[in-house]
Amino acid sequence: MGWQANKELVETLSSKQPGVNYREERVPNYVLPDILSCADGRAVHSAADWPARRQEILELFREHVYGRSPAAPAGMRFETVEIDPKAMNGAATLKRINIHFSEQADAPVLRLVMFVPNQRTAPAPAFLLICNRGVENIDYTRKIKSDFWPAERIVERGYVAAAFFNGDIDPDKHDGFVNGIHGLLERPEARTPSSWGTLAAWAWGAARVMDYWVTDPDVDDTRCVVTGHSRGGKTALWAGAEDTRFAMAVSNESGCGGAALSRRCYGETLSIINKAMPHWFCSRFHDYNGREEALPLDQHLLVALMAPRAVYISSADQDLWADPRGEFLAAQAATPAYALFARKGLGNDGAMPDLNTPLLGDGVAYHVREGSHTYSLYDWDCHMDMADRELKLKPS
Ligand code: GTR
């Protein structure tokens, strides 16, 4: 039968937050937009038809959800700040790279931290964390260690452990888009309902890391994973959608506006998120508050934008706010896009997997683990298991 929300937890949350739906039986009936039907009614039959449909879906997300992002600025430059070949007791080489977008003194700078495994014979595959928690979680001195970014473990498993702090690109507050990268690259008065929000700005930052990685001989740029937790997970999915150089995207408990289906209106909804975080999405997304059925898309299409590349969606059983079932259903509903490439996607029988039982499918993976809203070592290990399979580190 698979995972089901704990009844007591449903009762507790429902009484604490009476305006929020945590009951499966109150999920409205809905119909998801068809992945394989183009706007003009034509059906997508093969992998050859996919690029046009994919572009259409991408444009829908730019127009209605995350907003349109600009290209990298012409003056972008990479500065090597530090290289320490004896980091982590000799297991890794620490590289600190600053990505500059302008020569203006107060312009934002993306401070990329990388630990490259020393034990390797070829360029290494990489995991990039978009860090939405305090910078101490990505401490390059390793005096502070946190499961949110278990850099030693990532290196041990043969991956470059890389991270940047989202606030380097755009502060996580509603400032009218005058600060951060928005302030540098556009005039606030030129903004439209589809101008990029803060999540899109952070995803844009991840793409700039890819711009750097294609120049770095230590990194195998065909095997790079973008990952994030919660708001960082929403961002990682959008980064993987916008930049197909990422071979895999990971969403950890991203919930509303990430992996969870909006039409389910379970846990956090569009009205709630757009009110609390008005800067995250483009302003047109706010038009759908309480009108989810009017959206020309839903989040399964975001997962589908990864096809045929790999994607991992993970949930936590205490985190009903992020709607674990809605996240699973989006992952599963992406299957037709994978089928175009003769991939099975999640490839299950339709039921959710049991608790703590990762479903590593063909291109798409999902798990719901016990515990609360955080990025845990368990999550990281599962994500790396999938990357091992998909990025061909080990024979399957
Ligand atoms: C909450 C928000 C969620 C999630 C979370 C987080 O305030 O409602 O969508 O993103 O923050 O990032 O931890």
- End-to-end gap: 28 Å
Radius of gyration: 20 Å
SS summary, helix count: 11
Q: Which hetero ligands occur in this complex?
A: beta-D-galactopyranuronic acid
Q: What share of residues are in beta strands?
A: 15-25%
Helix amount: 25-40%
How many separate domains?
1
Mean pLDDT: 97
Low-confidence stretches: none
Question: Main β-sheet: number of strands, strand sense, barrel status?
Answer: 10 strands, mixed
**How many extended strands?**
10
Using the coordinates above, name the CATH class: Alpha Beta
CATH architecture identity: 3-Layer(aba) Sandwich
Shape: globular
The CATH superfamily is identified as Alpha/Beta hydrolase fold, catalytic domain
SSE series: HHEEEEHEHHEHEHHEHHEEH
CATH topology: Rossmann fold
Could you say which structural class the secondary elements and strand pairing correspond to?
A: alpha/beta
**Main sheet strand line-up:** 1-2-3-5-4-6-7-8-10-9
Protein name: Dienelactone hydrolase
Keywords: Hydrolase, Serine esterase, Signal
Pfam family, one: GCE_fung
GO molecular function: carboxylic ester hydrolase activity
